[in-house]
Amino acid sequence: MFRSRIFWRLYTGYIAVIIISTVIVGVLISRQVAQNSLQEINYSLAIRSELLAEIARPALLEYAQNNPTTVSLQGIITELGENTGSRLSVISADGTVIADSQERPLNMDNHSSRPEVIDARTKGYASASRYSDTLNHQMMYRALRLTDNENLIGFVRVSVPLEAIDEKIGQLRVIVLFGAGVAAISALLLGFYLAKTFSDPLSKMTEVAKAISNGDYEQRISIDSNDEISVLAKAFNRMARNSVVRMTRITTDHNRLSRIFEGMVEGVIAVDQHQKINHINQAAANLLGLSLEDCLDRPIWEQVRAKEINESLERAMENDCVVKSQLRQPSAVGDLVVDIYAASLQDTDQGPIGAVIVLNDISEIDRLERIRRDFVANASHELKTPITAIRGLTETIIDDESMGSGVRNNFVGKIHAQSMRLSSLVTDLLAISRLESGQDKRTFQSFDFSATVRRCVDACRSSCQEKQLILSYVSSSDTEKITVNGDQQELSQLVDNLLDNAVKYTPEGGHVDVSLLGEKGWVRLSVVDSGIGISPQNQQRIFERFYRVDKARSRELGGTGLGLSIVKNIAEQHGGSVSLASDSGSGSTFVVTLPTA
User: Fold this and answer.
1) Within a 10 A sphere around the Cβ of 242, how many other Cβ atoms?
2) pTM of the predicted model, to two decimals?
3) One domain for residues 127 and 250
4) Residue 295 falls within a domain, yes or no?
5) Distance between CA 503 and CA 497 in Å, rounded?
6) How far apart are the first and last CA of the chain?
7) Which residue among 53, 440, 455, 519 is least packed, with the fewest CB closer than 10 Å?
């Protein structure tokens, strides 16, 4: 009980009320008594001053006519002052005291500068409370102006000491203090009982509430009374039982939503009405380069620098609607394309409570759609070129019946060349389709990959000699086999495509260097040429189907634009990878890495 804060608050409140009430009542009573006493004294001084004025008027008139006879007046004033217990003074118009009940007038200073005399000169009468240097007492004065035919003839002044009022106030303070002490003791005892009666049940409720907040939902409150506290205890017990059910449901729903929220591939950001981030999942943090811990409770415009996201959020919250937009930013690995959906959130009273932003990264879909469009356009163009040539040549032969055999044979040869180009293109399209579909049944077996590379290099020497290229081949194991597990025909096509690409784009007098290195479970095939090279902005797309750095030169050389795409697919189908290092005018280096058997 004595540790209960509410007990001490109540009890302290009782004490404070008692002390404040006692002080207020005492101050008010003291002030009222003092005010009443002053009013009574002031009224008494007014009556006395009027009587004194009637007595002093003849003497003041004689004094004003330079015929002073103040001896009899001094005696009357002295006797009257002793009988009334007050000090009486008669003052001429120029401030000279001509009679006083307690001092000889000749010994007194001129009173024209006294506050009450100054005020009475202008107002007719005046009262003042001040310290008297003559009597060494706090006195109350009342001065009255006397006139004759509107001519000032002098003043009368009556004063009494204020000691009587101070004595009454002192006695009252003693009485009030005694009464307050008795009332305070009685109130403290009563307040102790009432505070204890009120705080004990609340202390029990507090203990049970702490237990429930710590997860002990089996605690209940038992109070034997029929008052409102008992009703509160019963309601608290019902709330505890309902809280168990609701907490279980909330926990289950929260865990479910958390798993859904974290498992979403879309980025989700929730903000409050001040645009501070309340929730953010890992997908959104990764997409925007944020930290889950550092960005919470921070303004979204401070953490996210994407103008499209902030503008969509502003429009959604201002117009209370769903805003759709798109973010497109260039990056090192291609364009970042994100669909943005921003929607405002409202409470049950239709009041704004924030907004939610959903970010859907469609960069890969956008890239694939672009590749699809390019593939359709390039495939149509590549197929159309030989078909158009074949059609034109055949129509010429059919229409010109007089064509000589030499010319006809020349046209037939061109038709054959275009048909071979068309066949090569169809073969490559079927190959890339078979590799990407993954439905082709491959025969993977262990074989000597170094022998396959050597055969491909030997087959390429004739092409290099025609262009006067220097072809070199280096292997880290000329005597030992480098065995890989895979489809020998596909890997042979991979090497042929790399060599064919290097020979085509290397000018006469250049060189092509092939190296094969085996190390720690991996084999590295490098093809280095001194050709035209590939700029950094084109390196990201060089492995796409039909993509060419120099389209005119590629078609002049007869390429299909599918060779490097086939190389990449074959390498990945065999658990490997292909990389490129190049720059414009500095040649290219293609490196294929495959796991050994």
Assistant:
1) 10
2) 0.42
3) no
4) yes
5) 10
6) 82
7) 519
Residue 437 parent element (H or E)? helix 405-437
Q: Which of 518, 511, 426 is nearest to 481 (CA)?
A: 518
Nearest by Cα to 194 from 16, 6, 20:
6
* Number of domains forming the structure of the chain: 5
Among 247-251, 414-418, 430-434, the range scoring the smallest mean pLDDT is: 430-434
Q: Do 491 and 552 sit in the same domain of this protein?
A: yes
Helix (H) or strand (E) holding 452: helix 449-466
Domain identity same for 241 and 268: no
* pLDDT tens digits along 364-397: 888 778 777 777 776 776 677 778 888 888 888 8
| Domain-terminating residue out of 361, 382, 406 | 361
In a domain, 192, yes or no: no
Residue 257 shares a structural domain with residue 272: no
Two tokens, residue 131: 């310290």
Considering only residues 528 and 543, tell me which one the structure prediction assigns the higher pLDDT.
Answer: 528
Q: Give the mean pLDDT of 497-511.
A: 88
Residue 75 and residue 52 in one domain: yes
**CATH number of the domain within which 410 lies:** 1.10.287.130
- How far apart (Å, rounded) are the C-alpha atoms in residues 233 and 212? 14
Say if residue 226 is in the same domain as residue 355.
no
Are 409 and 541 in the same domain? no
Indicate if the alpha-carbon torsion angle 382, 384, 388, 391 is positive or negative: positive
C-alpha to C-alpha distance for 251 and 575, rounded to whole angstroms:
44
Q: How is residue 234 written in tokens?
A: 């019963």
What H or E segment, with its residue span, contains residue 485? strand 483-486
In angstroms, the CA 53 to CA 268 distance is: 99
Tell me which residue range forms the domain holding 459.
444-595
DSSP symbols for 320-385:
TSEEEEEEEE--TTS-EEEEEEEEEEE-TTS-EEEEEEEEEE-HHHHHHHHHHHHHHHHHHHHHHH
**Distance between CA atoms of 329 and 362, rounded to whole angstroms?**
12
Output b/e per residue, 322-343; b: 16+ Cβ within 10 A: ebeeebeeeeeeeebbbbbbbb
SS3 content of the chain, % helix, strand, coil (to 5): 55, 20, 25
DSSP conformation letters of 20-75: HHHHHHHHHHHHHHHHHHHHHHHHHHHHHHHHHHHHHHHHHHHHHTT----HHHHH
- What number of other Cβ atoms are within 10 A of residue 126's Cβ? 21
Answer yes or no: do 68 and 138 share one domain.
yes
- Give CA 269 to chain center in angstroms: 13
What is the spatial distance between Cα 527 and Cα 495, in angstroms, rounded to a whole number? 9
Residue 550 is predicted with a pLDDT of 58
Three-class secondary structure of residue 280 per DSSP: strand
Give residues with Cβ within 8 angstroms of 443, minimum separation 6: 487
Q: Give me the CATH number covering residue 344.
A: 3.30.450.20
How far from the centroid of its chain's Cα atoms is residue 316's Cα?
18
Name the region of 542 (left: φ>0; alpha: ψ -120 to 50; beta: rest). alpha
- The answer to whether residues 564 and 435 touch, using CB atoms and an 8 Å cutoff, is no
Mean per-residue pLDDT over the chain, rounded: 80
Q: Label the pairing between strands 511-519 and 470-475.
A: parallel
Note whether 93 and 154 are within 8 A (CB).
yes
